Amino acid sequence: MRRLALFFALAVTSAAAQPPVVQLNAGMHLIRAEVAADDGTRMTGLMHRVSMPANAGMLFVFDELAMHCMWMKNTLIPLSVAFIDEAGAIINVEDMKPQTEDSHCAKRPARYALEMNRGWFASRGIKPGSRIGGIPGIK
After folding, report:
1. Would 86 be classed as within a structural domain?
2. What tens digit of pLDDT does each residue of 44-82 get?
3. Residue 18: pLDDT band by 50, 70, 90 thresholds?
4. Per the domain annotation, does 130 fall within a domain?
5. Is residue 96 a contact partner of residue 78, using CB atoms and an 8 Å limit?
């Protein structure tokens, strides 16, 4: 009985655990980004959320450099995604509609993707070639 109680306590703790957060920057613009670095957090992403603060987002860290794609299944808020290379440079930015299964893909192999509220990158003049600083593991 004690093992069962411990199992449920661990399950509830794991389910309630939040992804780690890092501070990124795009020039002078600061970003508070949750990090999705494992299969579970990458699959869930920003699903089921009804809002996100203005300078907040989610950084997806992929295991390998590849042609990654994103979609918006069960995602309620409109987002823009920037696909980022191994050096932290933006490859391309795509606007995504909520609750769709349309694929939005990197135009060349990417190692990261940063999701922000739709229009965040464009309204700040952040475009392909711009660098995102503070990504863990990039000097």
Report:
1. yes
2. 999 999 999 999 999 999 999 999 999 999 999 999 999
3. confident
4. no
5. yes
Looking at residue 100, its amino acid is T
- pLDDT attached to residue 17: 63
- Residue 59 maps to which CATH number? 2.60.120.1140
Cα separation, 37 vs 30, in Å, equals: 20
As for how many domains the chain has, the answer is 1
Contact 78, 71 (CB under 8 A): no
pTM of the model: 0.86
Q: What is d(CA 90, CA 125) in angstroms, rounded to the nearest whole number?
A: 12
Query: Closest Cα partner for 114 from 66, 68, 50?
Result: 68
Interior angle at CA 24, CA 20 and CA 29, nearest 5: 140
Is 61 inside a domain boundary?
A: yes
d(C-alpha 137, C-alpha 84), whole Å: 13
